[in-house]
Design a protein that fits this description.
The structure is a homodimer of 380-residue chains.
Chain A: E1 3-10, H1 21-36, E2 45-49, H2 61-67, E3 75-79, H3 84-97, E4 103-111, H4 117-125, H5 140-155, H6 159-173, H7 187-192, E5 195-197, E6 200-201, E7 210-219, H8 220-226, E8 231-240, H9 255-268, E9 277-279, H10 285-294, H11 303-306, H12 323-327, H13 334-347, E10 360-367, E11 372-379
Parallel strand pairs in A: 2-3, 2-4, 9-10
Antiparallel strand pairs in A: 1-7, 1-8, 4-7, 5-6, 8-11, 10-11
Helix pairs in contact in A: 6-10
């Protein structure tokens, strides 16, 4: 049994004080419905990917379902920190390939910026270990700063290489009208920006954001019937790593990403070199460099040099929609946003950012500081 | 493809200041592992059912997974308010029958009582509509009080009938060592207790609690191989109702429960009269009376009279483990606790509360004030 993506939608990411969370969910929903050419009554079930702790309204799946007119179909929410909507997509794939539903809506949505920045930092830090690590001041940037310091010490990765990830992703973000940031930056600009957690500068970090993205998944029969260009989920992998850094033997890699990608490659019967385009979870520049290595796109320690190969025309164009770095990172929406980007590429609809002839794409969604990883390989 | 329950576990419900949330998760986990006769390495994936907003530690699935030694297997959390762990079970069923995993752990866990009561009330009320309804003072008891008033006005249901639900469930709770409350109560005691939201008295309401329960689900082959008495998930239904009361045409029924149960009955190929034992979501006494009707156990308006038929020896023994009323209601744990109770019955392990020869059982888990309903029918 196969499952195909027949509709996609994506809101503008950024500060979205103009909408409620329900209205924000509506934007990619209606776009995805129209893209699929179906009515809302055709949706058999909905899985919402979001992190509930940023919202005053509790249990947001119910209000969203009502607002979108999806009662009485079932809905629930999945949460895996920043991997929440990839977990929703995995759930939808299971529901469809189990034969429980024919058409499932996956909706990633998050409004973070209603909270003051200090509150966001606190909430985000609380996905790290509040018992043993938070007392030592572990914000999210701190975790990734430790990864960066380890990578630099072990492999000689440089601040310039980290900065070059930001330069690439802002370059592509400048062509993406849905991105939060649409300006080019330079290596100098990154290195001159404020230190957030040494060695990470302000421009090494992605931004808190509001945003939403939707994916409509259907079974094989409905996919073929409703779409001329269904994009198939051909490989799925999910894995976890120890939550606390105390118990991780190595800080230069996320073992969850290594495990999850190997499972996904095996199911899709492809190798890393077969991937034509990828979206990786660049919440910090070091995260993208680690992803290159964890996904097998380059050798261990060579991630810093691989940035040049991640441009259009390089070995594997990566985050050519701007990535989390330029698009912004509305926690629950990011997983769906990545898949949206890959679907656009495999359909040949990516415009100026199109990877010629892309047939196989990969989305790499990390939750927290690597305790969750969910990989989806998509094929034309 | 079938999925069978091969292991179950259940913590003591109540005030559990003696454990962290990880330790609370461990209790039913290790019991379920031993019950199934497997090792933790045999678990292929874990789905945690919980409501994240009661916890300081964010994204609790990661810390629990690490504590239980389940890395690197995948895990994520499902949330549907009070229906969170039934959503986890439905997810696990999909993962297994889709062939994605062979053995999946479903773990419902919640620690509520670390929060002050005023905070719990506030959090709970926030699963109602914070935009249009909360300004009018809708706590959870208020919602169910409106249902009770409507049921009384339309059908002549009495306060004594409501109280009789509490009397029955506390009667059975008195025989359940895992229940929060293990004392018999009388109709007079209920009616003399403080009014919480008219017409609901204190003893018409279930209690906030800490607790956890675990279910190990396996595919057909593993179920038969590992268990002499697998309990099969033979019918699953899920549905939603409009979130805001403003848009519901009728307050004496939860349309989500009607829809979900009809789907589950059809899959299991049974009628309401075939059910030998049931667990229904009695967060308030009126909720159990509405459930009798919504599930088709009795006619509309006859729920108040049906209480007498819900004792052992009656037409359909219901909540004979004490229900939410006597066990307590740790949001995320309740769905798994209900299924635990049914599995005990179908295995013939329910001791003093055993329904003779029970072969088919039903668990009815409501989320919020009826915006979610998940039904599971289990068969020997």
């Amino acid at each position: 049994m196969k499952a195909g993506i027949i509709g996609i939608g994506h809101s503008k990411f950024g500060r979205r004080d103009d909408v409620t969370v329900q209205e924000l969910a509506f934007e990619p929903f209606v776009e995805a419905l129209n893209d699929a050419g179906i009515r809302r009554q055709d949706i058999d079930a909905t899985i919402i990917g979001a992190s509930p702790v940023y919202m005053t309204q509790r249990s947001i799946a119910g209000p969203i379902t009502e607002y979108l007119g999806l009662n009485p179909q079932p809905v629930w929410l999945t949460e895996a920190a920043c991997g929440s909507s990839a977990a929703a997509l995995r759930t939808a794939y299971a529901l469809i390939t189990a034969g429980m539903h024919e058409i499932v809506l996956v909706l990633g949505v998050q409004k973070m910026l209603e909270n003051p920045t200090s509150e966001i930092l606190k909430i985000m830090g609380r996905s790290g270990d509040v018992q043993f690590e938070a007392p030592f001041g572990t914000t999210f940037a701190n975790y990734y700063a430790m990864y960066a310091n380890s990578h630099m010490a072990k492999y000689g990765t440089t601040s310039e290489q980290l900065a070059s990830v930001a330069v690439k992703n802002h370059h592509y973000g400048s062509m993406n009208p849905l991105a939060m940031f649409q300006k080019e930056i330079t290596i100098e600009r990154v290195l001159e920006s404020q230190i957030i957690a040494s060695p990470l500068h302000l421009f090494d970090c992605c931004a808190n954001a509001d945003g939403s993205a939707a994916i409509i998944l259907a079974n094989e029969e409905k996919s073929k019937q409703l779409s001329d260009t269904p994009i198939w989920l051909s490989g799925l992998g999910a894995a976890t790593a120890p939550f606390s850094l105390l118990t991780r033997p190595e800080l230069t890699t996320l073992s969850s990403a290594v495990e999850a990608s190997q499972i996904a490659y095996a199911q899709a019967k492809v190798n890393p070199s077969d991937i034509d385009v990828a979206e990786v979870h660049d919440c910090f520049t070091i995260a993208e460099i680690m992803a290159y290595e964890d996904l097998g796109f380059t050798d261990r320690g060579k991630g810093g040099e691989f940035v040049e190969e991640a441009y259009l025309g390089g070995k594997i164009p990566i985050n050519v929609d701007g990535g989390l770095k330029a698009k912004g990172h509305p926690i629950g929406a990011t997983g769906c946003s990545q898949v949206y980007g890959i679907v656009k590429q495999l359909r040949g609809e990516a415009g100026k950012n199109q990877v010629d002839g892309a047939e196989i794409g990969l989305a790499h969604n990390i939750g927290g500081h690597g305790q969750y990883c969910l990989i989806h390989i998509l094929s034309r």
